[in-house]
Amino acid sequence: MKSTLLKILIPLLITAAFAKEGKAQPAQQNLNISFLLDLSDRIDPKKNPDLYQRDLGYIKSIETAFVNHVKEKKMMLLNDQMQVFFDPIPKIPNINQLSQQLKVSFNPKTSKKDILSVDNTYTQISSKIYQHTIKYGRYIGSDIWKFFKNNVQDYCIKPGHRNILVILTDGYMYHANSIIVDGGKSSYITPEFLRSKKLNAASYQAVMKKNNLGFIAFPYNLKELEIIVLGINPSIKNPYEEDVIKQYWADWFKAMKVKKYELRPTDLAANLAPVIDNFIKGKP
User: Which first-to-last residue range defines the signal peptide (predicted)?
Assistant: First the structure.
């Protein structure tokens, strides 16, 4: 009898152990993390005194989560990367070189020294990019809409990876070279634009639906892309501004079938660190 029970139980226990082990190893995923940085005048200290420091804090949190993920994997399984994009390219010295330094890729031949160097590299180089932009005052804006139109599929999605796009922006979307209106849809929103559409009351959703308002979407299937938007900074003149901004972005992402997304208003980096960590880890 005991022999029969053992024959039945042992395979079940082995199967359960492997199933549990499989569920407990999210670190085996290959991460492909991309940043899209909005280096418009929103980071001007005269306009928003500590905002660029918050951006650097968010970058630090994501970089830390990425490095921790890499450290948890066996060296032979490494196939992870992280990079930074801009649109348009900032007009600051050595931007190509600086951008290259922020493109890190790990494989089985990667040394532990290379992994440990990422923290220092990202801290120094990202800070230098922000400081140079502020120093030269060349706020050329950020064309997020055009980046999605032309580059998001090619730059941010890599087969066999969990693809994450981190967008640091105030939530408004505007660039002088991408001002398009098609019926109720547009390629941009600004505080003035939202006021003109009378989206300043609790009925904003009904107004948006009635007038078919939203961002112009593209016929993409971004089912392999997860997006987290950090730093949404709505105008205080409209108590519903944050809700309206989030509605625009949420509808846009849904139209392009984004796998998963999160929209977060600006906050101290320390407060958002756990949120960012959970997102990178894939926790609900």
Answer: 1-19
Q: Under DSSP, is residue 225 helix (H, G, I), strand (E, B) or coil? A: strand
Question: Which architecture, in CATH terms, is 29-171+218-281?
Answer: 3-Layer(aba) Sandwich (3.40)
User: pTM of the full predicted structure?
Assistant: 0.90
3-state secondary structure (DSSP) of residue 207: helix
* pLDDT score recorded for residue 25: 43
The string of pLDDT tens digits covering residues 258-279 is 999 999 999 999 999 999 999 9
pLDDT tens-digit series, residues 222-233? 999 999 999 999
CB-based contact 82:31 (threshold 8 Å): yes
Do 263 and 232 meet the contact criterion of CB atoms below 8 Å apart?
yes
Q: Where are the domains of the chain?
A: 29-171+218-281
